[in-house]
Amino acid sequence: MIKTLGIRMKRTTPSDFEKFDLVALLDTQPESGNHMVPSNRPPDIVFDHHFRRPLEGPEPGFYDVGGHYGSTTTKVVELIMASGLTPSAEVATALFYGVKTDTRNLARQASRADMDAYLFLFPLADQQLLAEIEQPQVPLDYFRVFHKAILRAKIYGEEMIVSDLGTIYTPDLCAEVADRMLQIQGINQALSVGWYEESLFFSLRTRGRQKNAGKVLHGIIVGQSLGTAGGHGSMAGGRIPVEGKSQRVRADLRRRVVSAIVSAYDHDYRHFTRVIGRKDSEEQAIDAPPPKTPDENSSRRPRAIRDDSTKPVAALRRAE
To answer: Measured between alpha carbons, how far is 54 from 56 in angstroms, rounded to an integer?
Structure first.
């Protein structure tokens, strides 16, 4: 989206905020810790659809936080609609993409406000630009990460999957992998973990709403003063800085946090099954001979080999 729409962005430092007389936060809150705004420069505007966090300082002049919204973008669109303004095609495309992705095309925790924002933006958005954003070309490492995620994935209690991504080139991959893993039949919770620039990132996705994913991750990571975390009912993310820590400490920290998340959903961290077993390893798959096919000249019907295991495998035996 940044490249397609030509959005100008830059990394900030604490001194940058002294150059401006107004600071706005979107999709985060002053005390969340996952932004670069210094504590001595409180924001003037805050938009966030996540649950309200306690404020240590004064409340910003404009503070629109919480509520029944599937996307922070919807809060911004509400003001645009109320003002009577018409956003440009580029701005409308970015806003529409925000509402669409956060609510998974209005299928995930979408409120009436989200629907109204969606319908308002749809005719204003550039559909060609939107297609370029949603179906971009990605580097080969993107697929390597997914390959690693599947090889290392563990299933707990037949309904929770945890994927170790190792080192990743962008923390967004944690969210993408978790979203994809939640599509596996029977899976109700998906957690992905990856290392990026001296930090450990977590993404949690759930189907049920019995336990709020944002509060679970916030309680474990922020509750233990390990890092920052947040989210809402069905999706959440977290970050733990590990700069200066040894490899052993990093591994222990990852194991401890993942174990706590797994336990929060009533699963035992010590008992799991792997998505890819040893018999299905990459080396054996490469060396295995191609499957035999039925003889086209044979008059006998090939018999199916019955597989009583849990793997959905079907094979044909060549007629003799």
So the answer is: 7
Contact 44, 62 (CB under 8 A): yes
70 and 121 housed in the same domain: yes
| pLDDT digits 0-9 by tens, 198-243 | 999 999 999 876 788 988 998 999 889 999 888 777 889 999 999 9
In total, how many domains does the chain have?
A: 2
Between these two residues, 127 and 282, which has the higher pLDDT value? 127
- Residues 181, 124, single domain; the answer is no
Q: Which class for 201: exposed (0-12), middle (13-18), buried (19 or more C-beta within 10 A)?
A: buried
What would the DSSP string read from start to end of 121-142? HTTTS-HHHHHHHHS----HHH
Q: What is the CATH number of the domain that holds 101?
A: 3.90.1640.10
Q: Please give the Cα distance from 228 to 201 (Å, whole number).
A: 10
Beta strand pairing status for 24-26 and 45-48? parallel
Structure tokens at 255: 């194991």
**H/E element, 113:** helix 112-121
The answer for residues whose C-beta is within 8 angstroms of residue 84's C-beta and 6 or more apart is none
**Comparing 23-32, 90-99, 116-125, which segment has the lowest mean pLDDT?**
23-32
Residue 121's domain comprises 14-134
Q: Is the residue at 308 inside a domain?
A: no
In a domain, 217, yes or no: yes
